């Protein structure tokens, strides 16, 4: 990803952490701001050029950042174990101080993938007046057997292949990123994690996109959002797995630009 990466300092979990971020087209001061929230193993760098492509197509400004524990942001402490509420804590405790630190006082559009999509939903549910709208790709709203099965496969792959080396290209600590995500998803109490009831508080427009061939979840995830949030726009993409912005990037860009543009004009 091109551009100059910077860092913001926030207080989280009783210590100061630095958050890696990148601004896109900051000079477009009157354009809508799109904030990108990465997946469970993502980072600023792992988005590659997709955020720039989306912002260029829509004439948007962008903010891409790595959550604490990921990318070049502060890694987890060696003894830091995330609990079942780890996505709630990111939505409720990390996003607000990050936005404050970066001087973001306008309601942004949140573009979230996988865990990032869940975090976007949780933020919009807790702070309905602080978000303009959501675009969520393959979000999780409850835990499915297929999700756990593939995360178990990911664990075995991490232990037996060069995956740690490959992830190390995108994270200061591959272990921090991988085990923070993997261990909690495979923690037995996490099987009861469910945010469906919280979705009722969402008041902004929502576009929910998922691949028909998503290996980490069924279409009941985005259809479940539609059953709780009136007016949700669903997009179910054929020939697409868990990363629609990689498998069908132009379709995702076109749908997102149209969605944001029409909702702003409404």
Automatic annotation (TrEMBL):
It comes from the Bacteria. It comes from Variovorax ginsengisoli. SUPFAM superfamilies: alpha/beta-Hydrolases (SSF53474). InterPro entries: AB_hydrolase_1 (IPR000073), AB_hydrolase_fold (IPR029058), AB_hydrolase_sf (IPR050266). This is Pimeloyl-ACP methyl ester carboxylesterase. It holds the Pfam family Abhydrolase_6. Residues 34-255 form the AB hydrolase-1 domain.
